[in-house]
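quick one, 221 residues, struct below
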Amino acid sequence: MAIITFGCSNTYGQGLPDVDDWLLPNSKPSEYAWPAMLGKFMKRKVLNLSKCGSSNKTIWREVTDYPFEKKDVAIILWTFFHRTSIIRKDRDNTLRILPGYTFEKNKFPDRDLKRLNKNYYKHFFDDFNLSMESWLAINHTKYYLDSKGIQNFHFTFELPRLDKPTEPVFFPDSVPEWNAVDLEVVPFIRDFGSDNEHPGVKAHTKFSLDIANRLRGRISQ
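---
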């Protein structure tokens, strides 16, 4: 049995000491990120399948494509609702669409991807549309995992910023009446990695303790 975690850069550990460049083909999730810390606290095998720049649609695909074994446990840290993606049959060609990729200072996207992101947020962005997209992904993920008999737990986060107040992933008034998922919000403390944007080692450690406390007595042996 293993705990399988899914999420975005805040699960991968972007900005932590052992992640120099997550774009490199051999890059691996950080050993300082909360999933690795969670494994140590709970004395369980944890597999971190998160990907930087993921939207909730991308996370949904990663979960539903994964070959779970009978006693595995899925823990999903859902990300910002204002992101989306264009998923393709070849998962390596998935297009990430997120506000950060419109910034000129962002060095990660290539020119075409940056242009796509700018056009999307200028001409097609609608917060209600993306909210429904995320809630659909979250609810179908739970339905899918429940149908497979896989224990699953759903969290999201609040993230402090250097230059702005804490940024929530979603707003409470966006929750549809049909939502059937208890999406637990766990905040990251104000501690930053080397990029001064993503959570640092202390933030990930505290986050993993909070997750472990919330899971205590809930995971089947």
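The longest strand covers residues 151-159.
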